[in-house]
């Protein structure tokens, strides 16, 4: 799960991290009110969307010459005019895709006199099972570009979570950023604070870009992105409360209500599978047969009738879906119960596209009998390869 910049900053501030003062706003009036609470005379009005690259982004409605999604303002009037231009409009950045994202929230913050900009991030590194702390002197720009053209300017420091953050990790961060004197000390302190926040909040990723050195010699976090391990969210109701559903795909929100793992993809064959590994294999074999999956969908081990029905509805809402492939392995679940669920769900949703079902496992014969006796135009498949060929043939018939 991702959160907004202002929310991440509020969380980090609790760990002592140095952050310029700022206030979130949902309306133009609130934005002006927020600016009045700040010392001024320089303010920054920042679009809050779950995507980076806002500064260089463009508003769809405003034309190519308008300013981006992060703007400096030198007066309350300027704060007001920026807020008016941003709220309700669609910001397109390198991370949003062409469709862009509607700006519904703003963050009005102190304008900082920037000396240098640095980069710092932390991610869970699955390969080493440790936390990778990544720093670079090249902050404020696209880090992917830095990694591509000047990889020597990026330093990775690996921290073993069992050992925790040691003073030498802090020194390594300050050294990599080439900081001297008091700034060097500040970097060591901040790196520890950020690590503590990362671990305590069960983050999956924390990125500070830029980490700024101000004109008066302070290290401050000017921008931050934070995402969380969804499996650990139950431990953090305060983080869960920060979820902004307007930033998420409606079908994925619906799926999460039924505990279905659903991810929309670009193809035309809807997939309903139990188990993530089987779902991946199903997607692969569809591709092997020359078509593309419309989604990844794992109904999980306990695929009840309710879950199967919800899954059908979600798949069918996608207008790109021209056929559905159900691939279920009845291990703990029995095939006859699953078949009952499929038949009931297919009747309830008024199935409008071809449906191929491959069942295997406990009570498979009984399951197949139920499908055949249902009177529904369900195509039964013998195995995974057969299922893929049949659904591909079905959708090509329509095309
Ligand atoms: P994004 O990464 O989405 O473009 P940032 O918050 O990093 O958004 O803002 C883009 C740029 O705007 C930063 O690299 C920085 O130069 C400038 N900036 C951001 N916040 C401030 C601030 N509080 N004061 C001065 N400049 C800022
Ligand atoms: Mg940034």
UniProtKB/TrEMBL annotation:
Keyword Magnesium: yes
A GO term for molecular function: ATP binding
Limits of the ATP-grasp domain: 9-241
Catalysed conversion reaction: GTP + succinate + CoA = succinyl-CoA + GDP + phosphate; succinate + ATP + CoA = succinyl-CoA + ADP + phosphate; (S)-malate + ATP + CoA = (S)-malyl-CoA + ADP + phosphate
Cofactor(s), names only, from the UniProt record: Mg(2+)
UniProt record, GO biological process: succinyl-CoA metabolic process; tricarboxylic acid cycle
Keywords associated with the record: ATP-binding, Ligase, Magnesium, Metal-binding, Nucleotide-binding, Tricarboxylic acid cycle
Residue sites binding Mg(2+) per the record: 209, 223
Pathway stated in the Swiss-Prot or TrEMBL entry: Carbohydrate metabolism; tricarboxylic acid cycle; succinate from succinyl-CoA (ligase route): step 1/1; One-carbon metabolism; formaldehyde assimilation via serine pathway
Family designation: Belongs to the succinate/malate CoA ligase beta subunit family.
Oligomer and partners: Heterotetramer of two alpha and two beta subunits.
Protein name in the entry: Succinate--CoA ligase [ADP-forming] subunit beta
Source organism of this protein record: Novosphingobium arvoryzae
Source organism phylogeny: Bacteria, Pseudomonadati, Pseudomonadota, Alphaproteobacteria, Sphingomonadales
């Amino acid at each position: 799960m991702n959160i907004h910049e202002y929310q991440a900053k509020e969380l980090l501030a609790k760990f002592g991290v140095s952050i310029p003062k700022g206030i979130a706003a949902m309306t133009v009036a609130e934005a002006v009110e927020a600016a009045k609470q700040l010392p001024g005379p320089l303010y920054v009005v920042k679009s809050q969307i779950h995507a980076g690259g806002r500064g260089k982004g463009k508003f769809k409605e405003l034309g190519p010459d308008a300013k981006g999604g992060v703007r400096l303002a030198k007066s309350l009037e300027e704060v007001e005019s920026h807020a008016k231009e941003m709220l309700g409009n669609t910001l397109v950045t390198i991370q949003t895709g062409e469709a862009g994202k509607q700006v519904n929230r703003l963050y009005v913050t102190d304008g900082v006199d920037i000396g240098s900009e640095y980069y710092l991030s932390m991610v869970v590194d699955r390969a080493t099972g440790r936390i990778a702390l990544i720093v670079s002197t090249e902050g404020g720009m696209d880090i992917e570009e830095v990694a591509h053209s000047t990889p020597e300017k990026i330093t990775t420091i690996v921290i073993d979570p069992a050992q925790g953050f040691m003073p030498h990790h802090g020194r390594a961060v300050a050294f990599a950023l080439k900081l001297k004197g008091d700034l060097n000390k500040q970097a060591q302190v901040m790196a520890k604070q950020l690590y503590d926040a990362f671990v305590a909040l069960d983050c999956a990723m924390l990125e500070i870009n830029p980490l700024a050195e101000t004109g008066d010699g302070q290290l401050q976090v000017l921008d931050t992105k934070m995402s969380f391990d969804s499996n650990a969210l139950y431990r953090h109701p305060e983080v869960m409360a920060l979820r902004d559903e307007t930033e998420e795909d409606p079908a994925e929100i619906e799926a999460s209500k039924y505990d279905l793992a659903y991810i929309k993809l670009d193809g035309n064959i809807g997939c309903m599978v139990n188990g993530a590994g089987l779902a991946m294999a199903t997607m692969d074999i569809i591709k092997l047969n020359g078509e593309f999956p419309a989604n990844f969908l794992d109904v999980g081990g306990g695929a009840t009738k309710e879950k199967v029905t919800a899954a059908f509805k979600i798949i069918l809402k996608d207008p790109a879906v021209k056929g559905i492939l159900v691939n279920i392995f009845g291990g703990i679940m029995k095939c006859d119960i699953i078949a009952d669920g499929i038949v009931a769900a297919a009747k309830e949703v008024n199935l409008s596209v071809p449906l191929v079902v491959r069942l295997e496992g406990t009570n498979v014969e009984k399951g197949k009998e139920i499908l055949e006796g249902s009177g529904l135009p369900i195509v039964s498949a013998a195995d995974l390869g057969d299922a893929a060929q049949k659904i591909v043939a079905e959708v090509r018939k329509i095309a």
